[in-house]
What we know:
Blueprint: H1 15-23, H2 28-34, H3 41-51, H4 54-62, H5 74-78, H6 87-100, H7 107-119, H8 126-130, H9 137-151, H10 156-168, H11 176-190, E1 208-211, H12 215-219, H13 221-234, E2 238-239, H14 250-254, H15 257-274, E3 278-281, H16 285-293, H17 295-298, E4 309-312, H18 313-323, E5 338-340, H19 344-348, H20 353-363, H21 393-410, E6 414-416, H22 420-433, E7 438-440, H23 442-449
Parallel strand pairs: 1-2, 1-3, 3-4, 5-6, 6-7
Helix pairs in contact: 1-10, 6-7, 6-9, 7-9, 10-15, 11-13, 13-23, 18-20, 21-22
Amino acid sequence: MPEGILCNKQVVDTKEKLNALLADKSGKQYYTEMKALDVDKKALWATLEKTCKSRLRTWLEICAHCGMCADSCFFYLANGRDPKQVPSYKIQSTLGEMIKRKGKVDNDFMHMVMDTAWSKCSCCNRCATYCPFGIDMGVMFGYVRGLCFSQGFVPWELKIGSGMHRIYNAQMDITSEDWVDTCAWMAEEYEEDWPGLEIPVDKSNADIIYTVNAREPKHYPEDLAEAAILFHIAGENWTVPSQGWEETSLAMFAGDWGACKLQVESVYAAMDRLKPKRMVVTECGHAYRATVLEGPYWAGLKSGKTPVDSFHYVEWVAESLRTGKLKIDPAKRIKEPVTYQDSCNYVRNGGLGDCAREIMSYIAEDFREMRPCREHNFCCGGGGGLNGIGRYRQERNIGLKVKRDQILATGAKLVVAPCHNCWDAIRDLEEIYKIGIRWSFLKPLLLSMVEIPKHLLPQDE
């Protein structure tokens, strides 16, 4: 293996580099090489001078050190109110110091910045809700991650993830051929139970273009089938693109802004090519943020909007229940105590809390809110890429305590979590703390209680 190929300041843009990273199990050699990285102080300061502009510099200057951000941070609460976990301290000791030192920092300092940016902040943006000046340390740490990435200080798993986006336009090694084959496989697999079921690929002028999280075709292909069945029941005119089908962006978690641009442009190209009326994003929070909220800016769209109107899956579900496209059998509604995990990315940052409550009003008889909830809810504990970073597993597990306690306080036995990161964090929370709960996406719950029109059932029924 060529010396230094694993950890360097180059982007992972070839299969050779990607395969070398993948062969380094758990990133042992990667982190060893990182200890020898030289910080390009001149380049770091040049980047700061060029990109750290008025908003970020003003935020750093006007912070009153009032501590209002402290209790907003689940890391602070979960770690015994450690002063070093106060968001303002974390950003002043990293970005603030970089600026004060004019980029003249060393390897040890950049290691500290990396560890802080990825293991002590999930970029959930909750701190901005409570700061009297509106200072958003989540936005600032997103920027810090980009600085770290440019210098080669990025967690191993996210270096791989951003490389996947550059090579496959997906967070995993799934080619367009693999994706199309999976669509055909799932349609065929479920056709006996659902006559006429299709997963249309590259259908022009459809009402909906549906995009997904690459984990679904890779690990949970039944999720794609469940989406298809619900579209089928609702009578939707829909399609998936053969290219530009992946909505997520591990590159956003990594701070690889070039790969972020490539990723969203692949989705927008599919919109331009197929000309759907709107896009529906699967049950994933960061996918919605990356492509709908942040994506237009990475792609240079002056409108700040995606090429066609874009909706999170909860918006489509709420609309379908409201209009009667999907009808719930009252006898099959959830009877046990159930709560809902508000995703930071589509509830706090996307404003979709009402859609979530509307859905729960249709499907649950004993819905119990977490406290706090909606845009005030705490991060699941694994957002911002933290779920998948082995180096910070202990920090992540400690952070899960806040969500554990929120769920326990509701008395709910089922947590509805229409977001991949939230779903994963709550799954791991149960495995670690064993509080006796279950968790679910919306799709399987809906299929267990939705009324099926007779003409969609197999003929022998």
